[in-house]
Design brief:
The structure is a homodimer.
Chain A lengths: L8 E5 H17 L3 E2 L9 H10 L4 E3 L2 H10 L5 E4 L6 H13 L1 E6 L2 H11 L6 E7 L11 H13 L3 E8 L6 H17 L7 E4 L15 E3 L8 H5 L10 E12 L2 E4 L18 E2 L5 E6 L4 E5 L10 E5 L3 H5 L4 E6 L2 E7 L8
Helix pairs in contact in A: 3-4, 4-5, 6-7
Chain lengths: 352, 352
């Protein structure tokens, strides 16, 4: 039983996770979209294998060290996209080792990164597949215009040691139309230069059920969809019953009639607001707000009597599941209220 | 040189840390206040030993697992206060093991916790020292009034297996007057019942240089003071030159004239705003704001041209040092621009 788990703890319901994975896979299959889940949410080789079992064609990682951890942990992970500008000799040497092991691809949004990749990979055996990252409105990384995408695609195609592999974007929410417009223009311009565009990849859980509205996209990279979280419930993307990840916490103090303190703070729930007010949703208690976190204390407040007792346990859906996973060395796998196993978070804390 | 460190990375300048530790120790020595640093900031046995060398009488931890990690790592750590309500058989059994090894004390702010401690420690050999946690205005944990403090102190003093050890508070910023008032009244009332109050402990770096304004306090528990951070600079508690911890990051993209992206996101800097606007201070560039973080991307914006180039490295003072330390498996010890060693963060992620 979960009553035997020491708190605070991060619980993951395996059946719910599988159901979430299969739901999007069915949608993607129905629309001819390949699925390449982002492992940042779970950081677990077993979950990646579950996604492959459901029909995913490979995985997405954000950092070289994440890819290293996942590839080392599972022989079934053989196709990895790292959606990051990779810079510096140390990282490039690590990247080359991974490129020898699996089908690897990376992205670039500027000439310095492309030239750095080429300088390294022109000296090693196998060419590296590189996509151009495009800014379709999220205003993070990415070339700003289709013309810039063409220029960078040509640079990659001409660079010793590199192979141009397509276009990548992390779009804004509800960005399907913007993706379709940018990518169509970029693809046509690149193909007009005689360069093939084998793959166009987009991502993001919030708008994933509208992925087919950008039919030019060949691959989709959802991350949070496997667990869901409070931000996705707030967007109407899922219900509380679809949230596979919860934080189990114990009430350690009820110092006032409308205030209680739990043993989960920012070291478990994190300070990510992710557009929400408060730091999570107490399951079954929508009247309670988690209004303040210290590192090891969460403060719960209510309008009326809070009605909690010291020692009582609660389950919380965090604002943002991915960052919570990164806080803990292990997650507790559960089946409803039944404890199944503790799993080490294999790719936790991999920031380089 | 720090140029050989892979980014992102958390750098700690040992000389600056020592200077910060010695500065407060000198103040406390001058006012007859004992120092019991909170290890949550550094989570490193060596830093605790440095604090003991400077004159600290012991350490503070927030969770049992933190105390376990620190005690296991250093034979010199022999006096530990855990400032937390500890609940549940598993944690109590672990606590009893620590109580056999070192001079240990914990806190309680309610009868359920006291009764739980007593039920366990009445069956083991050595009594457990318990302080009453008092709410002096921070409105987190703590009994609300001196009268409640007396009641709980009497309960502890009468409980088999427990020894009443004094009063503890985590005060609000600039709370010295409130601490003095609450603690004086509580101490007088408790002593009037014939119970000695051997120790009164307060804490918090922001107001530590005013600790002597609550002369009833016998011990002070600063945490962040060893490293300092942007929140403390903003409060006027220190300058940038006193910040011993910085995040080293690489510019990976400059997609617009006034925008750059670095390889440190919320998995390094965390989303803690801690009362600030933006997610950290770029050393030497007060004109830049870190306005948005994803897990692995930090977005830097400026009013005019940002003037950064892809591949360039920057150092950032984070909003809150303690939470940044908890994100990484190791910190890079530096001496100015010289790399000294990588140290594993021994008590990282200890949440139970």
């Amino acid at each position: 039983m979960t009553s035997r788990i020491e708190t605070p703890a991060v619980l993951v319901d395996l059946d719910l996770a599988r159901r979430n994975v299969e739901k999007f896979q069915a949608y993607a299959d129905g629309h001819g979209i390949r699925v390449r889940p982002h492992i940042k949410t779970h950081k677990l080789p077993y979950m990646a294998e579950m996604q492959l079992d459901a029909g995913a064609i490979g995985i997405t990682c954000q950092k070289v060290s994440e890819a290293e951890a996942m590839i080392a942990a599972s022989e079934r992970i053989t196709d990895v996209l790292i959606t990051y500008n990779i810079i510096g000799e140390a990282k490039l040497a690590r990247l080359a080792k991974l490129n020898d092991k699996v089908k690897l691809s990376v992205v670039a949004d500027n000439a310095v990164v492309v030239d750095g990749l080429s300088a390294h990979f022109s000296k090693v055996g196998k060419p590296l597949a590189v996509l151009v990252e495009c800014n379709t409105g999220a205003n993070r990384c990415g070339v700003s215009t289709p013309d810039e995408a063409v220029e960078l695609a040509r640079r990659i195609a001409a660079a010793p040691g590199l192979a141009f592999a397509g276009l990548m974007t992390y779009p804004p929410v509800n960005g399907a139309a913007a993706v379709q417009q940018f990518m169509s223009k970029a693809r046509d311009l690149i193909e007009a230069k005689g360069i093939a565009v084998p793959m166009i990849t987009s991502g993001g859980t919030p708008s994933m059920m509208d992925a087919a509205e950008a039919p030019i996209v060949t691959e989709y990279r959802p991350g949070t969809y496997i667990y869901n979280d409070r931000s996705l419930v707030a967007r109407g993307a899922c219900g509380w019953e679809d949230c596979a990840l919860t934080v189990l916490a114990t009430v350690v103090s009820v110092p006032a009639p409308n205030r209680a303190i739990i043993d989960a703070g920012s070291k478990t729930l994190t300070s990510d607001l992710f557009g929400q007010t408060g730091y999570g949703h107490v399951l079954g208690r929508p009247d309670i707000s988690i209004d303040q976190l210290s590192e090891e204390h969460g403060r719960l407040v209510s309008q009326g009597e809070i009605g909690l007792t010291v020692g009582q346990r609660i389950r919380i859906v965090p604002n943002h599941a991915c960052v919570v996973v990164n806080m803990v060395d292990e997650v507790q796998i559960v089946h409803g209220e039944e404890f199944v196993a503790a799993w080490p978070v294999v790719a936790r804390g991999r920031i380089t």
